UniProtKB/TrEMBL annotation:
<feature type="region of interest" description="Disordered">
    <location>
        <begin position="118"/>
        <end position="144"/>
    </location>
</feature>
<protein>
    <submittedName>
        <fullName>Uncharacterized protein</fullName>
    </submittedName>
</protein>
<feature type="compositionally biased region" description="Basic and acidic residues">
    <location>
        <begin position="118"/>
        <end position="134"/>
    </location>
</feature>
Amino acid sequence: MLLECLANPSITSIVALSRRELDITNSKLDVYIMKDEDFLHYSDSSLTEKLKGAKAYIWSLGITLSKGTGNPRDRVISIDYTAAAAAAFQNAFLSGSSASRAPGDKFRFVYISGSGVERDQERPGKAPRKRNETSDVPFSMTLH
């Protein structure tokens, strides 16, 4: 997914939040190394500055809770990290310069879930692959 984004000429810059260095270098890519606790608190002002002006975020961090160890940390990683990120990115978008946003611009938070997951968990037919609880977390993403 990262390589596809880097190859897309309409994407001008990417800030990747990672727990380790990446084996990819590209002039459009800025890798920001995060500690586990950083995923709950986006308090580093240098990170906040990097996020300002972003138009979208693709979130692909998580654990399939049904396949997890039952460790409470699995839920923190899958749900709490996601909710904290959504709020931080919304705040960064709203605090960015309004001059850099066109009227009606919206911030897109794209949550990547497991492949083959049935969105409508009540759909009749064969038993659907269950989605992660994160899909049901109500995010307050109303943008002005």
